[in-house]
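Summary of Year 1 activities. Much of the first year was spent building the evaluation harness for sequence design. The harness presents a backbone, in tokenized form, and records the residue chosen at every position. We chose the following record to illustrate the format because it has been used consistently in internal testing since the harness was completed.
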């Protein structure tokens, strides 16, 4: 039951997150959609390995936008001291053909 609930939750996060972001873009920009698609930023690993299974949390939103062909890319901020979260997230995104860039936290400001 927990696994099923986790998969369902991740799926819901992705769908709802994408809807909220698209509604916000429409409110702010109207029909003037960003050229090249939407760009997201996340910190560390928020993909499959951050959840029991499914698409993860924040990366499920990116995945949903990617499926809709409106994701321009994701900037993944590294976590200290080892940066393993960003490497895991970047690898998961590459496997789904999501454009991504890993950045040191100090370089993101």
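For this record, the design step produced the sequence shown next.
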């Amino acid at each position: 039951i927990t696994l099923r609930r986790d998969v369902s939750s991740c799926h819901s996060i992705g769908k709802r997150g994408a809807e909220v972001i698209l509604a916000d873009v429409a409110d702010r920009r109207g029909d003037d959609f960003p050229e090249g698609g939407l760009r997201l930023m996340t910190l560390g690993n928020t993909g499959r390995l951050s959840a029991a299974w499914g698409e993860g949390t924040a990366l499920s939103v990116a995945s949903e936008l990617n499926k809709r062909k409106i994701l321009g890319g994701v900037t993944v901020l590294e976590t200290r001291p080892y940066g393993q979260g960003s490497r895991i997230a970047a690898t998961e995104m590459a496997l789904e053909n999501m454009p991504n860039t890993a950045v040191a936290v100090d370089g993101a400001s």
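The helical segments are 2-29, 58-67, 84-95. Quantitative recovery figures across the full test set are reported in Table 2.
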